[in-house]
Amino acid sequence: MHIRDILSRDATSISFEFFPPHSDSAVKALEERLGEFEALAPSFVSVTYGAGGSTRERTHDLVVRLKQGGHLDPVPHLTCVKQTEAELEGILNRYAKHGVSNVLALRGDAPADDTFWDPASEALPHAADLVARIQAFNATGVHPDKRGFGVGAAGFPEGHPETPNQLRQMDHLKAKVDAGVDWITTQMFFDNERYWDWCERCALAGIEIPKIAGIMPVTSLSTLHRMAELAAGTTFPAKLLRRLDRFKDDPTSVEQVGVQWAVEQCNALLDQGADGLHLYTLNRSDATRRLVEALGASSAAPMREQ
Hints:
The chain is α/β, with parallel strands linked by helices. 46% of the residues lie in helices and 14% in strands. Helix 3 links the parallel strand 2 (45-47) and strand 3 (74-79). The longest helix has 21 residues, at 251-271. It is globular, with a radius of gyration of 19 Å.
């Protein structure tokens, strides 16, 4: 279903993010959890690439599998790092053939094994270029939905590590929107004030499309430190760190504190009119289920307009 129809249908969208499994055993583990994710009736699920597109084929295979299953509407990440225009054309054709309705357009991470990599060397150097390329594909009418793919982009309420100048960063986001973005999904954040301030700055820049808030519950102290590495610049409020430190020797309690913090975040966001919630699941259904259920329903479905 096209993202415009999803956001029109659902009074409050709640979506999940999966990462493609790196091994056969991880594939099996995710397959065993899919039924639990399906029971939560998310508006859609996004599927990531690994750094530099390292899990590209697993992403494609998982997306097609989810689409064929018919219970989870997949939104694949699509990046332009280390990809030719011909490769991107092939990916878009494959997704269109299988009825995938939406993609999340990202530049992608710099390749870890190439210290001399320069974005200018790419066929499509920036995410805005990728958005424009997807819209050009849409104009061909190949996609069974004559609107083509719905196109999403990433937003960074606390800044992007490669663009510390936040004025320039907002210019980059506006360029993506002007190229044809339908919605924005944000990087994870733990301080809602950062999100709302960013939304105000978006409004000042004339960015008025839906902005879905990215939330990731802390499930362990090791996960917390990994988040800090992956999302450089993210603020971890002292109140959250104090709560986690109180139970640092009790992993079960640490996870409970993390989930409860995310519940408080999500309720406050919904109370103040956030366009939707995007939950970074780490492919873990238990923490996601507890979070969704704590928002006041056994699944996301009752939050949809009837």
